Amino acid sequence: MTATLESPDTGASPQPPPPAATPTAPAPAPQTQPIAAEVALTLVTLIAVAGLGRLFDDNSVLADLLLAGLAAHVLASASRRLGWGLLRSGLLQLVALVVVVSWVRYPDLQSWGLPSSATLDAARADLTEAWDAFGVVKAPTEPLPGFLLAGMVAIWLIGVVADAAAFRARLPVHALVGSFVLVLFTGMLGVDDWRLLSSVTYAAAALGFLLMYRLDRRPRRTAAARRRRSVQAGTGAAILGLAALLGAVGGPALPGAGDDPLFDWKELDGSGGGRRVTLSPLVDIRGRIVDQAPIEVFTVQADEAAYWRTTALDNFNGNVWGGEWKYEPVTGELDVLPPPVPQVTNIQTFTISGLADFWLPAAYLPVRIDQGAVKFDPESATLIGDGPTAEGFTYTVESVSPRFEADTLRRAEGPIPPEVLERYTALPDDFSAAARAEAERITADAATTYDAVRALQDYFIGNFTYDIDVAVGHDSGRVETFLTERRGYCEQFAGTMAAMARHLGIPARVAVGFTWGEPQEDGSYVVRGEHYHAWPEIWFPEIGWVPFEPTPGRGAPFSAAYTGVPEQQEGSNSLVPTTTIAGADDPTDAATPSVPDGLGLDGLEGEFTEDPGTTGAGGDGEGGGGSLATPIVAVVGATAAGGAAWALAVPALAAQRRRRRSRAASTDDERIEAAWTSLVSELTLDGMAPYEAETRREYVDRVAASTGLPGERLAAVADSADRAGFGGAAVSGGSTATIDEVQRLERQLRARHSTKDRVRRRLDPRPLQPSWPRRKPGSPPVVD
What we know:
alpha+beta; 12% strand; single chain
């Protein structure tokens, strides 16, 4: 017996029974591949990647990053056209990523064209170096190999996720999230060059993709449909072009466009928005020594030779030393208090020619500078320029050079102020246990702080070899390797000795600068890259900071009296001229050195605050460079928090809307309409929205052909909804059967979904729209 259904239009004409020979649903008609939308989405990713040029000082590296983005999109498109699922496609992408990255980044470390253990070791070393540098670099920075490796992996992932979101999950807006985060990252940290152009170009490309995505999903089987699509494409392109033009030309002309922001996030880390071109000194020191050895950095006319100190680093996070200082504009006398030991005035005039940092070298301890456009931090005794680099800057600085004696330092015992002890003895919990034990062994017989420091220094000088052909860095693993192999360069000697002193409760930090350089006939010194150097500074009660020298083959001028190390440096081991200290023969005069008037330690708070782990200057200059570590944590945290909020809020709000719609239906007709709306919403989430020119019966016939759901049951629900919406013929209480049928159909529909589809549907925000579900414009496709 075959059931028949009455037509809602005539009430009598029977519908033909479904074909008995069709036990399963017919296959859906093949869909047109979204070629234009795919190209547009690929272009969006590539434009976002091109903006990364604002982070690096060498844009040629963008070719590798662009290749990663392009390859990810091409492979994603190919795997979809082959009908591959997510698992098989993901495995293809993973293998391709490994092979392409190894070919591009490590072409000489392949084995039969494939990555080898040497490739993995090199990649691991590059990523470790990049991680060490990550918290201290400022844009535009050197494109370290680890940065490019991590960038290629991240961009490849962005391309894969974007393609899956757009063409598998059918969520075009979600497909733009990855590239938008990349643009946001670049905008926050990159320099201002090309900022407007890159922003406008990305916005236009993103809107163009959304337009192409919408047009690619429109029916175009008839000539009229193709004409409509052509008109819509032309209109959309014109609107996009006009919007981009107005944004590029009109945006900067708006009132207040050039004013300071109401809230400047860069002030949170004290970077002040100044564009700074630098790496942390201890991240790049080996590269400077090896790669820039013959380059003239500066010349200095000075009363006597000295270590030309640039800055000091007080923060050791287990991987790299960094500084946290406060700078304020200064001219004239500097707020420092010279130590109560004999001292000599040293007036120096520097001419900077090749220094790519903004620090200004000076002999320790600077007490006066008369040039403007200079900032100073009293705690570290660091001078910085007000521009991106010090190159081309000439200045004169007056310093007092202390003449420390061993007996004076040996007597310098006493309580250490809590703020000094807390700041300058801090070590990470995972600092090498072997280094801690070795420090205790070396200093076991030391009676005073000075004796302990000398024991550490002499241990390195007497048992180690200076060698720049070793692994870079000074984290715990490298410290242990350094102590075992007993070979390294100044960064490792200075950093390790300072860390070991801290373990012993002795305040220590690392100073960075240059040895005195090549003496000239006119009394000046030429300083080159090979003279770059690092050494530890130790704090003594009532004395302050005192430099020591653990690096073999190096020795500061006029320091042998307490270090026992003669003056020596790279390229020249000749002794520098000695200077007689006025009154040094008289112990009374030597014990009370003169201190310039007006010097003190009060009022050190300044408006320029550096972020932890950096040695960059604060400033109010133009540009947009910022430290990478602090804001990227904020970006990642905000993204994670936003994702979690989305995952919780969207399903809850959708469920609340369904309950509100159900409670608002007070009659049988309204309850039937609400049930029909719920069914259409479920079908629309699966890409089967009704068309404007489509009746309910035509719609359910198309749904049955596409989904395999029972056509007679769908038709019965559509007929019931027609009667409730137009005829008002529903019997009191008759809505229960229709609602039950809709719920059964919805459960059957959901049972067909994979776990991925269920997650996608729960996170889809479209059901929250006031007009959801909406009808599509145009004519319905023909169902064969």
